[in-house]
Each structure stands twice: as structure tokens, then as C-alpha cells.
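User: If you would, consider this record:
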Amino acid sequence: MTPQTFVRRSRIDAPLGALEAWHAREGAFQRLTPPWEDVEIEDPGRGIAPGSRVVLRARLGPASRRWVAVHHELADGVGFRDVQEEGPFGSWEHEHRFEADGPDASWLEDRIRYALPVEVLGEKVAGRFVRRSLERMFAYRHRVTAMDLRRHMQALDRERPAGVQTAQLKVLVTGASGLVGSALTSFLSTGGHDVHRLVRGRAPGQGEIAWSTRPFEVRPEDLEGADAIVHLAGENIAARRWNDEQKRRIRDSRVEVTARLCEVLSKLERPPSTFVCASAIGYYGDRGAELLDETSAPGTGFLADTCRAWEAASAPLAEAGVRVVHARFGIVLSPAGGALKKMLLPFKLGGGGPVGSGDQAMSWIALDDVVGALHHALLDERVRGPVNVVAPNPVTSREFARTLGRVLARPAVLPMPAFAARLAFGEMADELLLSSALVAPAVLKRTGFRFEFPGLEEALRHMLGR
């Protein structure tokens, strides 16, 4: 097949050294993988060191293909290149080039020389598909690189949290394999922070700490010396239909585990200076069109009761002088998981639409802004107590469906009636699908947090590559 060349070049508002370091650190490859791609990273390799191998498994429908790329040095510039050793292309060589643009900015250039496999029929059609895929992918990659470096560079100018001696934090993360946790740990690692994941059910590897939630077990000495803890672990509330046992698991995985963890942390010789604990806007219950901020009273219902108890469980740490942040997450959007992933197939098939009346408020946030908000909470001493982690522009269920349909170029006119939602999901439908919470991110706005994706359509287009 005829070799082709693809090039994308972008100016990045960060010094050349920062751009190089970002790519060399653990987590960069995960940050650069578009969330719409069905790719499993089997081995991210040893950064960009020559000879390091990245191993992926890319899926297309029921089939999958292993892809192995080996890193090499650039012979005539700053950066690195990777060459396909095994994979879907006839040949593939990808040059990552970095160039200074004065002391405070740099140029990022991706140059790919590739050939389709010889067995491909319809080279012209396949070639156009590959070209469009590369354009989508590298537009996303360059946006993420610029966004992450901007956040990391801004963090260097901030006053460090009390008790922290360096710009880099030692951060412990529970729930690190989840949607939010995996994105956060990758982001923090690319910023040079010392990230340790608390893992369950297997022997810990490098940068990991063993713990158990059922029964609760963790060695206090493994937690000593951390500057901050981000506690994201908890039973997936939408994993299965609710019954008394499932509701108990949901509550215990949050309230009891948080209480036990905080008890251990409060007794450390040197407790962390910051504890960021997940919560949710379920705290406010079903409130119709009432505008809610962090000072609003709690609502009623299972989720509201659980969130209230969940936040109260960290009281021992606050009493010990630790800065505690309760991150009340809205609907976190990413095609890699959560609500959006479940919506995509019916919407792509033209069967999407609002749930119930369509008038209920949906307080959403893009995953990249969740990561940014947690980073902001770790570094800004003014952020404490409840923090609504939501975008500044909530929409109704009807508006959400129309916007997603427009981005996907599909109709979105088939509603799910309330009775059908209750029939399919039981009590969970009333608390997750049919309730309304119009939530404002008052604390984030007051403390100067910058949303990269304040509007729904721009957020969806970014994360879906549209």
C-alpha cells in the first residue's frame, strides 16, 4: 500500500522542558488516549526511554488486535519516535517533535508515516477513514496536552498548602481504577506529583498500597508522609437494581469505609494536610427548579441521607486540623464510563431522548474538568468543606438529549416515560433519572477555578471527537 504522511503542529503555552517532562512521565499515554477509542492499555511502557515498548489491544466490534510500539530517539531533534513492531498497519512510524518558542512556550508536532495493511480492500475508502481518525485523535491529544500543561504551569505559581515543602505533592488515591480515579492519577503523575494508589484484592505493585474495605484493613505506616488523600472508593450506585442489600452495600462502602479511613488518618504521627472525599449532588435530593449552592440544605431520600452521613464521617479529620473537602460530583460525562457511555448506543441508533417529562435539571460536568477541580481543591487553601463539582451551565434532560443528538447527528425524540424508567430501574429511577437538581459551582467560581468546558455541546464534541 502507498505510504501516507500525517502532520499536526500546535503551539503550547509551556516551556520546552515542561513539554518534554510531561510526555516522559507516567500517565502521559493514558491522558493522550481518546476516551471514545475502545483501547485497553496492557502495558504503558517505561515512559519514552529508548527501547520502551507500549502494548495496546484495540477493539473493533467483537474483534480485537494487539498493537506493540517501540520507542526510539530522534536523530535530528528534541522528542522521540515510536515504531510499530506488531499491529494493524502495514507500517507505522510516529515522530513526537518538541521545539522551543522563546522561554515560555513551545511547539508540539506529531508526524506520522504509515501504510495500510496489504490485505485492505478499497484503499481509497479505508485511507479516508484512517485520515479522519487521525485528525480526530490528534486534535484531542493536542487539546489535552495544552490543557494539562496550562493547569500544571499555573499550579507552580500558587502558594503551597500549609505543611507542604515542595511544588510536588505526595498524594494517595483510593478508587484509583475507577473513571475519575484513573483520569486523576494519570493527570497528577504527568505533573510530577508522587501518586500512590490504594489497591484491593491483589499484591501491590510499584506506587501502590494494599488495603481492604470488607473487612477494613490498611497499615497506618503505609499512609504516613502523604501530603494529601483523595478518597474516591465506593460501590457503583448504578451497577445493579437497588434492594435493601444493595442499598446497604452502597451506604457502607461510603460511610463506614470513610469513617474507618479517617479514624486511621487522624491517629497518624503526621496526618495529611488535605483530605478530599467524594460526595455527590444527591445530597440535595429532588429540588425541582430551585437553584442550589453549597449553602443549601440537604434534601430527602436514600442518596441525600447517604451523602449527609458520608460527609459527616470525615469529622475526626477536620477536628484534627486537616483541611477537608467534600467534592459533590454532578453527572460526570465521559464516553469511557458512567452515564454517557450507557447513553451512547441508543442515541447512535436513533433511539435516544429525554427521560420522564424532560424538564428535570441535569447538573453535569466533563471528566477533564472534574480532574481539574480536584487538582484545584488539592492546591488551594481556600477550598474546604462542600464543593459542587458541576459545570456552570446545567441543562434540562430535554436539552441534554437534543444536544447529544446534534453532536452525534442523530434524532433524539424518543423519550423514556417515567413509568418505563421505574419499571426498568425501580427506586433508582426516581433518585437518579427522574429527580431534578439545579446546582451551581459557587465555591469553584469564587476561588477562581477555570472551566475548560463550561458548555455542554463543546464538552461533548471534545470527548467524542466530533
